[in-house]
């Protein structure tokens, strides 16, 4: 959308942070008719940011309003708290309860910013939703659109946008994605524009868990349930207060007491919500050679039939790895890794790339690990 020749009516999602403020300012400077909107998503609207954690608080809405005033654009606060609770928070809790590891940022982009917000924007006559994400939408000669990595790989956020489909891309604007600027330069630009948020710390972790204590957040909603921590042979090594408090690849907080016989650290290998058991083992047992993912979503045109080679990203800040992937029966994505990877957990998203183009994403359902030596 950034290279569209006509003047657009743009709804700029303003979180109260520096990125979204600069994105809104750039959209307005490009000649578009921009309106700012802050999404009230918190279950407790009286809450305030603690340090650099969290977002979507009253403090953030005030910061967004001040930025909109400086830019000179209309500004509104839209209450999407109930939709956010149902589609993001409750999904987050349910996934952990089922022994999976969700990514709430992907779910928010899919269900809130580019679904609930976009639908409302289009109904009100807006042409596009603008955000401060670092990614690029490319308009092809045939009129179709592609999502690409940001020009600066160090800030690329295309992974959390890999759930956007062709319709959503057609109404997405990312003004920060096609310029190679450091975060310091973005802050300098904000300062030049007179935006108070120029020095505001970035938010971290999960926005609705302001103190960063995910395990405590889940415990309040799911309660405690003592279970066993076992090794790969089923020997009990310790206990826990709820299997939901663990994720594949976790090393710290295992509560297994004595060191392993080989003296090496142990990691979470498996989480079984059925019998509330957590299995731990050596790092080598985390090696994943293949996986099956479900609920595929394609960014623009779908991939060609049959297996093909791509690069894949498995975490928001993870690196790329080469894979062979094939869509089976239109529902399951079968992926084989060129080299084993570690820390892959069901519930996470795998995002496929063809060079810088985002092909699409799917939710990891099962993994296959490399057979142990001598097996």
From TrEMBL:
GO terms for molecular function: ATP binding; tRNA binding; tRNA-uridine 2-sulfurtransferase activity. Keywords: ATP-binding, Cytoplasm, Disulfide bond, Nucleotide-binding, RNA-binding, Transferase, tRNA processing, tRNA-binding. The active site is at 108 (nucleophile), 207 (cysteine persulfide intermediate). Belongs to the MnmA/TRMU family. ATP binds at residues 13-20, 39, 132. It comes from Streptomyces benahoarensis. GO terms for cellular component: cytoplasm. This is tRNA-specific 2-thiouridylase MnmA. The keyword tRNA-binding applies. Residues 155-157 are annotated as: Interaction with tRNA. SUPFAM superfamilies: Adenine nucleotide alpha hydrolases-like. NCBIfam families: PRK00143.1, trmU. It is found in: Cytoplasm. Gene3D superfamilies: Adenine nucleotide alpha hydrolases-like domains, HUPs, Translation factors. It comes from the Bacteria. Its EC number is 2.8.1.13. HAMAP family: tRNA_thiouridyl_MnmA. It catalyses: S-sulfanyl-L-cysteinyl-[protein] + uridine(34) in tRNA + AH2 + ATP = 2-thiouridine(34) in tRNA + L-cysteinyl-[protein] + A + AMP + diphosphate + H(+). The gene is mnmA. GO terms for biological process: tRNA wobble position uridine thiolation.
